[in-house]
Structure of Glutamine--fructose-6-phosphate aminotransferase [isomerizing]:
Amino acid sequence: DKAGFRHFMAKEIAEQPAVITRTLDAYLDNGRIDLPAPGLDFNTLDRLTLVACGTGHYACYTAKYWFEALARIPVDIDVASEFRYREPPLDPASAALFVSQSGETADTLAALRYCKGKISTIGAVVNVTESSIARDSDLVFPIHAGAEIGVASTKAFTCQLVVLLLLALEAARQRGTLTEEEVTGRLTELRALPGLINHALALEERIGRLARRVAEARDVLFLGRGAMYPLALEGALKMKEISYIHAEAYASGELKHGPIALIDEHVPVVVMAPTDTLFDKTVSNMQEVMARGGRVLLITDAEGASAAGDGVWETLILPEVAPFLAPILHAIPVQLLAYHTAVEKGTDVDQPRNLAKSVTVE
Ligand code: F6R
């Protein structure tokens, strides 16, 4: 049931404030993090490994920044198809989390099975709790996104991010890298996120108009720094899978090491730059793009918009948000841009060509 929306994807994008609230309700008890029993002891872990495919991998990539910055745990990430055949040496004092919406992705399941008996704990971050990946894990962390029908993952992505962020905050609390008060403060900010996402969703009309121009492009580039880099990767994936426009993502600092050669007036460059400690660096990369005629679509906040200066093609202004939450909030305009570009192109948004919702063969 599309509930009056034109596509499941549109419905699932719009549902995010509600489903994220549900995820938070499931993991927070009286303002404290309450993990499914028996919980996870982060003090005994030397490292953490995060494995997934596709969008789940980008959720893991974002979480690497959180676990490392907040809890000071070294994190290894990989796509499951590489991990399983590389057969990496594993630290027995480590845990691995396998992130999968369906819980049935063949490569992710094989990667999980490779870890069995080699590490202390195997955890599943899944939407479908009655799934192979959940069954084969010691611990299951449901994301509570509800059924996701659109092939392009949207609400499962943001709910994966929320659960991974809660785990990183719990790790920080246990390891004492954040005080109880600091964790409580972050949780209060997280509680406000669904409201901010509603503001982001209100940009839909603007994004729909922008998408008409983006739909004419042959290539689109996505740039971000820090935890916004994995979101750039996710933005490019979303764009290519439903609009069939070639899209690539780079860490902003990598621009001058190659991809800047692609820039001309035909290539829209989506720059994700919330006001944070890396903002000035991203803006200077953006200026390099504009100096070569590139059309920059800047996604930022009000402060970032006024600091960015002239020459930006279009700016989307999101509400102000704590930097650690920016990757989740910025996911919304990125999803809407891919969605409306695909609608503009007339593709089969919910069932893009060559793709399946659950990839149970490798
Ligand atoms: C992209 C997308 C895919 C899946 C990937 C993993 O929008 O949906 O990249 O993320 O196939 O699927 P799950 O999460 O079910 O293991």
The mean pLDDT is 96. The longest helix spans residues 155-175. Residues 53-56, 100-102, 105, 108, 152-153, 237, 241, 358-359 surround fructose -6-phosphate (CB under 6 Å).
